[in-house]
Amino acid sequence: MREAVRYRSICGDYYRHVWVVGDLHGCYQQLKQQLIARKFDERCDLLIAVGDLIDRGTESAACLALLDAPWFISVIGNHECMAYAVVQGENSDHWRNNGGDWYFELSPIHRHSIDRLIHLSASLPHVLEVNVQTRCYVIAHADYPSARYEWGLPVNVGDVVWGRRRLLQAQSGDYQRIEGADRFIFGHTPLKKVCAYANQIYLDTGAVYGGPLSMVRLL
């Protein structure tokens, strides 16, 4: 049975500021520095992540623990999907080959606590709709694989968390708006800088590879 896309909607007007951050990949210290620089206030601000909290960086556990923070929301990324598949009993080679070795180096007690967070990550939305004042933002890890956004539309999960076709076409000069929302924000593909094509923003600037950890403010 094919997995259904999970949608979630939030109202950003309840917060002072709403920020969206690119792929963390275990770069917890960089995130802390960015939040301090922006005077992020956990009491009244909201941070949204585009997924891929874990793997490749040195602080995957700390980034995954953000799921317990009331001021933090994330969509699910392909690395969370790989992690969940392994804790469900699937072969670990694919995850290990993509930065998952940190998990297997944990002590049994620590791994047990991480398993809880990995199970929590498996319930994250694939698509997050954020309504801020009169604007509608849609956040997903890799793509929203439709020409028009509709709440609850049954798009392909694999494209949402793994897809690069839209970005590759845009980089070659072939891009167009996705109708149905004002702005779409994605991560997944490391870029040298934040890129915008039509009404789509690509926010992964390769923090784990030495690039900056990029953030945009919605409110």
UniProtKB/TrEMBL annotation:
Transmembrane segments: none annotated. Residues 17-189 form the Calcineurin-like phosphoesterase domain. Pfam families: Metallophos (PF00149). It comes from the Bacteria. InterPro entries: Ap4A_hydrolase (IPR050126), Calcineurin-like_PHP (IPR004843), Metallo-depent_PP-like (IPR029052). PANTHER family: BIS(5'-NUCLEOSYL)-TETRAPHOSPHATASE [SYMMETRICAL] (PTHR42850:SF11), METALLOPHOSPHOESTERASE (PTHR42850). This is Metallophosphoesterase.
